[in-house]
Amino acid sequence: MIRKSPMKQENRQMISGADFEQYFQPQSLEKALEIKAEYEDQIEVAAGTTDLLVANYEKLHQIKNWLDLDKLSELRQIEVKDNNLYIGAMATHLQLMKSDLIKEKFPVLAAAAEDVGSPQIRSRGTIGGNICTSSPAGDLLAPLLSYQASFKLQSAEAERIVEAEEFFTGPKRNLMEADELLTEIIIPLTENKREGAWVKVGRRKALVISTLTLSVVLEFEAEQIVKAGVAMGSVAPTPIRLGEVEEMMLGNTLAELDYKKLGQEVKARINPIDDLRGTKEYREDVAADVMVRALNEIERKRG
Amino acid sequence: MQITFTVNGEERELEVTPYTRLLDLLREDLGLTGVKEGCGKGECGACTVIMNGELTASCLVPAPQADQAEILTVEGLGTRDDLHPIQESFVEAGAVQCGYCIPGMILAGKRLLDENPEPTEKEVRYGLSGNICRCTGYAKIIDAVMLAADKLAVEGSDSSD
Amino acid sequence: MTDQNKRIKDYFCKHTTRCTIEGVKKSKRFVGHDVLKADAWDKVTGEAVYPDDIFFDDLLYVKIKRAVHPHAILKDIDISQAKKVNGVVDIVIAEDIPDVRQFGLIIRDQPVLIAPGEKMRYMGDPLAIVVAETKEAAKKARDLIKVKVEELEVITDPFRAMEDDAPDIHPDGNIVITHHLNRGDVDEAFKNSAIVEENRYQTQFIDQLPMQNEAGVALYDERRGVVNIWAATQWLHDTQADVAQSLRLSKDQIRIIQPTIGGAFGKKEDVSVHIHLAIAAMRTGRPVKLCFTREESMITQSKRHPITIINKTGVDRDGYLTAWETKFIGDTGAYASSGPAVVHKGMYHATGPYNCPNLRGVSHAVYTNNTYAGAMRGFGTAQGAFAYEQQMDILAEKLSIDPAEFRLKNIYQKDSITPNGQQLTHSVNAEETIKRVMELSDWKGGRK
């Protein structure tokens, strides 16, 4: 028979607010940096929380300290100053895909933002979160690399600018210090005509972690390619920029490029793994194909 | 900690902990059980609410971040006796089976039609792309949103007369 | 009765008795009419009450500590630290419920809680029931339960499970059940066939993935000795009987109340939260709630069977099937669930909707340490369809005939006899279906 529990009448005290220590929701960046300096890696930084709450599902009560940047509207600005575009780290994917400025000047970034997760994720997830999570599959990362973006890292004491290409050091690892916050993304503007293409390969169209992403941005003087940014996600431990492939394109016109060969060059320079989303072999073959597709698209857009 | 927010037009003040998700707050503290948990990880859309005008997965919002927000759940859209045209369309198009995804689907449909009153089927699919249904195969759900667009268009032209 | 309770009661009275249709003109006949679903209004307004939507004042939350290894003997379970967590009301381990019996849909092979000395057979096996004032306290306590195990060989492949030297997952061996099928003279027919084609097919685990996870609430009415369980099930009375026998109660002491169900597709045929909820409710005397997370639902509850199918099919020069030999090896995972029925049903449909006079088949449902497999839409036949339709395509190609024509030649007609001997006397419209598909798809013979 089921006997009555001997514990029944005791021990009825609930878990209360005392089980976590601190929830900080600073109203200014200065204050946020002070808190970060004090707690360093003993605090969880909350931006759009679309990664944080997934990683801590069923364990949210175990987070002791929270630094919630939600109230820092100063970090949500998107603006042009001195020939650079500045995107606040708390700008959401939705903001990026809707911004006329980004759609016009950095369409590959806007297109990538439009491919992140789902409407529900894009309305909350932030560019800063995408960067700081540093997943090799982060959808905005390849476009940021190909636009040669840099990141402003601030601490209470100092600030520094780091090139996107230098920032990522491994899967979910980057060179941010424990007392730093990412505050701004800086992307240079150009006088030249620029054209680009974005490819995301995944098992579904929405709500999918990329099997592979490719971002190609070319800058032209007349017909000649004078600058190139070719970057990929989910094909190496970090998002990568393919400098050698870029070199091969410089000084040429599109008509002079052998797309198929460039596809093979891309394939030769990536280092994907087998995982749930695709095999190494699949990713290598697809990488070559999507490079051709991207170049075709750029050619079409240039008319 | 204390937060203040507006839910379905009503201002609420509540004591929350950081490990309370907006989902729990709505369901357990406010009894708005039309908001459903399907996965808890933002993958299924069953917990969708409209927060500050945008579709939001309420399972991915720590309650303190809902402070000062304006939130709409399916309960705020229409009642049994006074259905919103989108709700009506879901009934009439046979879009409802087990019903667990439906509150989220309806809100995604509403958000889409607010911005784009005459969507193409492709746009409807994109608008609903954050919501999973396992019963219907989506066809009738898409029909329902298209039907709602027609209804709202007629309603709109009536009121302007 | 609180308002909440009244609301729930009203809801269920309404939903179990209502048979009229609102919003449309009433009709005596439903077949052939467009009928609006009676519960659609509740579902579009958020009023429909699913198991997780039921709350009581004084509600306790339940979490289950599950296996730490897919195949291991439980040596020791230590709940002393877990008990100290603030808000924990009860932690139930096997020794607290010595009389409780095993349960299961067809074979009662699933333990309610694993006792020291017994084996955990997959990652979903329950070791302890934690009951607490809050979900957080229950989770915290669950994670503080310490377990010692002796690991055994983990069997994930049914072919390994069938080998002589494989350890027995259950006392009676790893083959749960074997079925045979015999008709005509298969060996002779193969000898006289123009082409004989043999292939091996493998299907995979599929989760039914209903939108709502397993969830429920239970309340023990001590005065009447009745446990009320609000939880989803697909077989109300079977679940009631199984829960009652497991707890050694009479059936009228268990009330299973079906709230609105958030999808099932076969996954909710098995007992999930019910028995643990009943135990927690009876021991604490308070209403209790248990909701699986998606991950828990994936690990714990049934799947579509992965089946290895070996088909050998003979055909004569005119394109008629002559003989079919088939073998179905179904991985039913750690527990039988519906496996014994699913795998042999799949085999009985091995030839699909095609006439074949000579048949031989064998099916085995086999235990492994995978999550158990049970019912899912089609009940074994979906796996079979993949294999027999491939056979038909391959044979058509070898015969150099149109795969649609090949199918039409062999398709079931009125009075055809299925492999298990059933004569089809009415509603046989497979030929019509194929012809309609050919018409609608502008079929050009399947050639590029």
UniProtKB/TrEMBL annotation, chain A:
What name does UniProt use for this protein? Carbon-monoxide dehydrogenase medium subunit
Origin organism of this chain? Halanaerobium saccharolyticum
The FAD-binding PCMH-type domain, residue ranges: 15-192
Q: Which Pfam families match?
A: CO_deh_flav_C (PF03450), FAD_binding_5 (PF00941)
Keyword Oxidoreductase appears in the UniProt entry? yes
* SUPFAM superfamilies, A to Z: CO dehydrogenase flavoprotein C-terminal domain-like, FAD-binding/transporter-associated domain-like
Query: MF terms per GO, please?
Result: FAD binding; oxidoreductase activity
Record's keyword terms, sorted: FAD, Flavoprotein, Oxidoreductase
Q: Which domain of life is it from?
A: Bacteria
Q: Does the keyword Transcription regulation apply?
A: no
TrEMBL record, chain B:
Q: Which is a Pfam family this sequence falls into?
A: Fer2
**Coiled coil spans:** none
UniProt cross-references to PROSITE patterns, sorted A to Z:
2FE2S_FER_1, 2FE2S_FER_2
- Entry keyword annotation includes Iron: yes
Q: Is Iron-sulfur there in the keyword field?
A: yes
Q: Where is the 2Fe-2S ferredoxin-type domain positioned along the sequence?
A: 1-77
The protein's GO terms of the molecular function aspect are: 2 iron, 2 sulfur cluster binding; metal ion binding; oxidoreductase activity
> What UniProt keywords are attached to this protein's entry?
2Fe-2S, Iron, Iron-sulfur, Metal-binding, Oxidoreductase
Q: Which InterPro entries match?
A: 2Fe-2S-bd, 2Fe-2S-bd_dom_sf, 2Fe-2S_ferredoxin-like_sf, 2Fe-2S_ferredoxin-type, 2Fe2S_fd_BS, Beta-grasp_dom_sf, Diverse_Oxidoreductases
- Pathway(s) of this molecule: Alkaloid degradation; nicotine degradation
Q: Which domain of life is it from?
A: Bacteria
Cited PANTHER family: OXIDOREDUCTASE WITH IRON-SULFUR SUBUNIT
Name of the featured protein: Purine hydroxylase delta subunit apoprotein
From TrEMBL, chain C:
The molecular function terms in GO held by this entry are: iron ion binding; oxidoreductase activity
Task: Please name the InterPro entries in this protein's record.
Answer: Ald_Oxase/Xan_DH_a/b (IPR000674), Ald_Oxase/Xan_DH_a/b_sf (IPR036856), Ald_Oxase/xanthine_DH-like (IPR016208), AldOxase/xan_DH_MoCoBD1 (IPR008274), AldOxase/xan_DH_Mopterin-bd_sf (IPR037165)
Which domain of life does the UniProt lineage start with? Bacteria
Pfam families registered for this protein in UniProt = Ald_Xan_dh_C, MoCoBD_1
- Which part of the chain is the Aldehyde oxidase/xanthine dehydrogenase a/b hammerhead domain? 45-153
Protein name as annotated: Purine hydroxylase alpha subunit apoprotein
Supply the source organism for this entry: Halanaerobium saccharolyticum
